[in-house]
## 1
Amino acid sequence: DVKVTQSSRYLVKRTGEKVFLECVQDMDHENMFWYRQDPGLGLRLIYFSYDVKMKEKGDIPEGYSVSREKKERFSLILESASTNQTSMYLCASSFLRGATQDTQYFGPGTRLTVL
Amino acid sequence: AQTVTQSQPEMSVQEAETVTLSCTYDTSESNYYLFWYKQPPSRQMILVIRQEAYKQQNATENRFSVNFQKAAKSFSLKISDSQLGDTAMYFCAFAAGGTSYGKLTFGQGTILTVHP
């Protein structure tokens, strides 16, 4: 079974703090994604990566950055957390680069609260 | 840019009955895929079913089937013989073909509650 894990289920941070959200997948997937989930808005893509050290902006990249130094690990960074970044963050991975139809496998999510 | 709309925020159904969740989308792409994902309470999101736009035949997976109306840009999910374990939030999603890397555009979600 594919396993996608996220470093924390719940996180509380202060405004202005630098926040790291970690995601690890164990199935040698090429693609990895970061989404945020908000009520009434569904999931929105923040960033994705199709290879080590490669990254592409999604629909809402402002205020975020990412890092992919190893194939299995994809980190989301909030350089200076703000209250409007309070949300559920979901990581996902899929097998083949360019394989649009591939299933995305999701992690359990990190509920981030910024005070 | 693509948009996906789910107009039913919440739905409920009795166990063993059939329910249909609606989804519409807008795109100028000719090659794309559509998906339904399920997010059970406090559990990870999983794929329920996928449909390739170039296939006219509607996809089915056991009790789950879709009604894909390409001209109307409609993609509804039918759940037959509903079970308590079907209680979840359901998301409709779109992925453009070509070099999109499988990026998904999601709808707003529909919370489905199955009552005993």
## 2
Amino acid sequence: SQKIEQNSEALNIQEGKTATLTCNYTNYSPAYLQWYRQDPGRGPVFLLLIRENEKEKRKERLKVTFDTTLKQSLFHITASQPADSATYLCALMGGGADGLTFGKGTHLIIQP
Amino acid sequence: GAVVSQHPSRVICKSGTSVKIECRSLDFQATTMFWYRQFPKKSLMLMATSNEGSKATYEQGVEKDKFLINHASLTLSTLTVTSAHPEDSSFYICSARGLAGGSYEQYFGPGTRLTVT
């Protein structure tokens, strides 16, 4: 069955450093991979989408890589700030009208 | 990014009653809308997928007669939890997908916290 793995434990990073989150998947060939941010009691907020034929995508302090051979995506936040503290969700989607399949998320804590 | 609204944000109802949740895409036409539920510290679980004007497709284990979905237009979908029970208490989140720049970007509403007493 399809499986998406994200670090289930909280990730503590010092302010100003780069935070790197990992998303691994098995038994899946996604057409797109998306990263979302979710704060407690709120819906996920879309951050970045990367396609299967793209290696890397950037948006301001965010960078996502997508390695379909390793079946892995890395999500980087550079110059991290306490306001970046949240749960970050990795989600995969096949082609067509498939719904997103989500990982459990990684709770990121940026310490001042 | 695109805006998706959900109403109400919180609802408390008595066991046996029905609750309707509305989801609207405010600034784009959603080709597809999705409904998820999320339990505390758990991932989002897809309940159903709906396209405008057609019947929703439910995920395995989701009762279609209990969770009624209506997708009346390209900007509005509703989820009705019928004969709600305490175990239906959860965080329900809708999502709308539209074609943007050749990719399917999916945006989420703020969620509805349902508590059944």
